[in-house]
Amino acid sequence: MAKSHPVDVHVGARMRQRRTLLGMSQEKLGTAVGLTFQQIQKYERGSNRIGSSRLFEFAKVLDVPVSYFFDEMPSNALAGRPVSGRGKKGGFGEAGTPFEQEKDPLIKRETLELVRAYYKIGEGRVRKRIFEMVKAVGAASHAEAVGTRKGRQPRA
Question: Distance between CA 85 and CA 9 in Å, rounded?
């Protein structure tokens, strides 16, 4: 298998993230820029490089600035070290960080569906209350997990 450049993998992942967040299929995105869904898959995997004019087209269709595709670039991608395969250690995430490709919560379908559902809630006050509740539950869950790891018993 040819080695993918970490920047190509990152840009492809960001493209997939945005497309999924918009609820757009690979076929619909491909049609909008004159490509097949198979070509979109290759771009999203990072196995094909995206040229600058094509990236500009994707940015217009996905309604983001071109810089969006380079946001949150991991440091090893900047070093230009190619990676082989997909989602392996040594992928675009730094080893040992919570943002290795296979663990990145921002590229999981569940996260994107949650964000889409959240923004479908029309009433701002209700959305804000749900946001605060999820933050509180997450903080309590994290505190309990940390307490258990330190040898403390979780509260009943």
Answer: 11
Q: What is the dihedral of CA 70, 72, 78, 81, to 10 degrees?
A: -100
What is the spatial distance between Cα 59 and Cα 66, in angstroms, rounded to a whole number?
Answer: 5
Of 5-9, 77-81, 127-131, the one with minimum mean pLDDT is 77-81
3-state helix, strand, coil in the chain (%, to 5): 60, 0, 35
Which amino acid, one-letter code, is at 65?
Answer: P
First to last CA, the chain: 52
Q: Position 69: which residue type? A: F
Q: Is there a contact between 13 and 101 (Cβ–Cβ < 8 Å)?
A: yes
| Predicted local confidence at residue 3, as pLDDT | 83
Residue 90 has pLDDT above 50, yes or no: no
Pairwise CA distance, residues 44 & 69, whole Å: 11
Tell me the pLDDT tens digit for each residue of 112-137: 788 888 888 889 899 899 989 988 99
Q: Hey, what are 77's tokens?
A: 């991608």
